[in-house]
Known about the structure:
Blueprint: H1 4-32, H2 36-47, E1 50-51, H3 57-61, E2 85-87, E3 94-98, E4 104-105, E5 122-124, E6 147-149, E7 156-158, E8 171-173, E9 179-181, H4 186-193, E10 199-201, E11 223-225, E12 232-234, E13 247-249, E14 255-258, E15 271-273, E16 278-282, E17 295-297, E18 302-305, E19 319-321, E20 326-330, E21 343-345, E22 350-353, E23 367-369, E24 374-377, E25 391-393, E26 398-401, E27 415-417, E28 422-425, E29 437-439, E30 444-447, E31 461-463, E32 468-474, E33 486-488, E34 493-497, E35 511-513, E36 520-523, E37 534-536, E38 541-545, E39 555-557, E40 564-565, E41 576-578, E42 583-586, E43 600-602, E44 607-611, E45 625-627, E46 632-636, E47 649-651, E48 656-659, E49 673-675, E50 680-681, E51 697-699, E52 706-708, E53 723-725, E54 730-734, H5 737-741, E55 768-772, E56 775-779, E57 788-790, E58 795-799, E59 812-814, E60 819-822, E61 836-838, E62 843-846, E63 860-862, E64 867-871, E65 891-893, H6 911-918, H7 923-947, H8 951-974
Amino acid sequence: MMSTLPLLCFLFFLSCSHLLLSSSFSFSNSTKICPHGQALALLQLKKSFSIKKFYSEYFEFYHLPSYPKTEYWKEGSDCCSWDGVSCDLVTGHVIELDLSCSWLSGTIHSNSTLFRFPHLQRLNLAFNNFSGSSVSTGFGRFSSLTHLNLSNSLFLGLISPEISHLSNLVSLDLSWNDEAEFSLLGFDSLVQNLTKLQKLHLRGISISSVFPNSLLNRSSLISLDLSFCGLYGRFPDNDIHLPKLELLDLWGNSNLSGNFPRFSENISLIDLYLSFTNFSGELPASIGNLKSLQTLSLVDCQFLGSIPASLENLTQITSLNLNDNHFSGKIPNVFDNLRNLIFLFLSENNFSGQIPPSIGNLTNLYDLDFSYNQLEGAIPSSIYGFSRLSFVDLGYNLLNGTIPSWLYTLPSLVELDLSHNKFTGHIGEFQFDSLEKIDLSMNELHGSIPTSIFELVNLSSLKLFSNNLSGVLETSKFEKLINLTNLDLSNNVLSLTMSVHSNSMLPNIAFVDLSNNNISGIWTWNMGKYTLYHLNLSNNSVSGFEMQPWKSMQILDLHSNLLQGPLPTPLNSTYFFSVSHNKLSGEISPLICKASSIGVLDLSHNNLGGMLPHCLGNFSKDISVLNLRRNQFHGIIPQTFLKGNSFRTLDFNSNQLEGLVPRSLIICKELEVLNLGNNKINDTFPHWLGALPKLQVLVLRSNQFHGHIGVPKIKSPFMSLRIIDLAHNDFEGDLPEMYLRSLQATMNIDEGNMTGGYMGDNNYQDSVKLTIKGSEIEFVKILNTFTTIDFSSNKFQGVIPECIGNLNSLRGLNLSHNYLTGYIPLSFKNLKILESLDLSSNKLSGRIPQELTSLTFLEVLNLSQNHLIGFIPQGSQFQTFGNDSYYGNPGLCGFPLSNRCTTDEIPYPSQEIEAKFESGFDWKITLMGYGCGLVIGLSLGCLIFVSGKPEWLVWIIDKNIHKIVRNKRSTRGRGARIS
């Protein structure tokens, strides 16, 4: 019996093994065979899309594998083994479909076979191109779905409300489908129904709703991303009890306001993004309770006040970004505990004081940005161990002292920006060649450029402009800087020696600015033959060019040098070409009109002559500035201007041009500045220019214009004109009152709301020479708020129009050297910001209005050589004017003239008030007086009649009659002058 026991056990083992193997084989076969209908549906789904490879930066950033998964789906094979397909191990039903990053391109229609998988639990279609598809009702059929990801796949249109029926959803990601949106109630319905959500990401989906309070009660919520969703209103002020919440992202909801969220102490928040919202107020001290926080981003909000010291409790934080707020006070010295910080951004705030020394403990720091604050003092010098620091930006502060040595020894440094501070001393030698960008501009650094800079083989941008750097630069030093694209050494005291072999250097250079240095001689450094587009050598002593080899030049600025000889012709690619303030001579070649890309052409202040090419007005639709001022051109102005042209500035001042003003200027609808002054133009007033809607500056001075200006031919001419100079011509007749009434740009200027400081743009700013405050002044820039009128030295006659007083934004008014008569208008008291008033050498009469003392901005007043009489007003600015303001008016008296007034009476009322009495009584006042006198007279008559002759009345009358007689005699004896 005992001998058969092992045999029985062996047979039992074989039997069990057989059963187990049979069962296993059966189970395995059942899981590998998916239902035929599902395989067919998947293959049909495959055919509905095309495969188009595309690149997304997200693939690289998130390390996502990207390949066409459906390419490996083959008919006859088990669909459960296909890439991206997962099946239930028992039933074989497809329960998971992951086609993310599969290069799929096409439209998902409502009848797509995608919706034939009712057992789906997970669906991921992210990072494909389903342009033209909507999140349709079909997606609402997946009743078992727990995870749905349709992000970054170009869905658009209304999101079907049926998606809110997916009550089992734990994760929903529709992010970055920027043209998709929820219906008015769709989002609210989704929030109410999907109560199991742990992850809700809707970045970029248009919600246009207030923030739903109910979301803050979902204790299961782990990740909430509602960035760029158009949320508005106020974020709830109540406490947030979401113990599992790790991500809250509200970035980019610019109309969403509120204070910093109130989180409970037991929260697990890791990442908080409130950037580009309207959140405001101070950061609470309770921010220190967020001890798991790794990312805090509050860029471009309205936060203010100081940073709480409790920030030091955020020991896990790796990224702190408070850029572009209104924080103030000192940066707290809290960095001893924040040793995990990698990114520290505090730029564009109002921080003051010194940089805290504890930043030296941030040994993991990669990017440091304290720019655009009011930090002062020296950079901490005792700092070591910044082995990972790659980006340092301390620009636009008030930092001073020398640049500390540790900044030259950072082994990973890529960008260094210390610009716009007050650093002094020499630039040190850099120890590592990792640097790509250096900006030390706008400081007080001196000495030579260190040789180590020319060893930085990765350098792409070097900006050292506006310092006191000196020495001689040899172009051969740039040999190793093959990656340099941007070089700005302007506004220093540098000289340049150009070697024979320098042309092959800087092969990738695109931008070079060496202006305002000591560069002289012939320019032979022709670097960047195919890449250089911007070259500025202005304000040097360059005398010529060996050649112009550049093929891509767009901006060539050579003004204020010593260039001689004929005018060089700009390249066809050139947009900006300035050779003003040189010694060029000869004529303008018609070949210049082949530079069809030219936008700004400035040839002013040279010795160019001859006649102007007729093509100058019509060779390019893009040209906006043509400046030929101060040359020796003669003949006529080009008569033909291209229809639809872009001319903004035309300056022909100080030449010998003659003839008529071209009538074709009427088609220059963009014209803002027209300067024809100091020529020999013989014409009547070009009234038709009044139709130009943008004309702001009109200078016709010192020509041979003549005749009456007359009345406008159109309604409201010169609506934008604010600088008009007609001086030194032969205009006659009355001042043009109707034109003056139309100068809307000189009335009620709100300087606070004016955009831009000066006329022009970044490439070119307009200039003009005017007679202001008695002197010729050249305005190298024209303020957008500056206004002046100069009609001097003509033959105008008649009275000064009262309407000039309506031009209450005038800064200067010159009507001198004409034949004007009458009074100084009382309305001039309205010219509250007038700085210069010249009415000299006319035939004005009457008194100087006392009301002019209210002109508190008035610096220059000239009323000389008229027929004015009476007291000179006293007070305010009038106390500052000397005799020259009044000489040639023998009837004037009082300070500052030696001709003293002989009475102590107050100044007489204005002549306009006197004129009312001279023209007759005011009958209303007369009748009132007559009525009162009649009543009093009758009353006194009755009193006398009843009581006889009262003694008290006789005494009063007698006393006053004697006083009047004495005063008359006394006045005759003194011989007082009344004028």
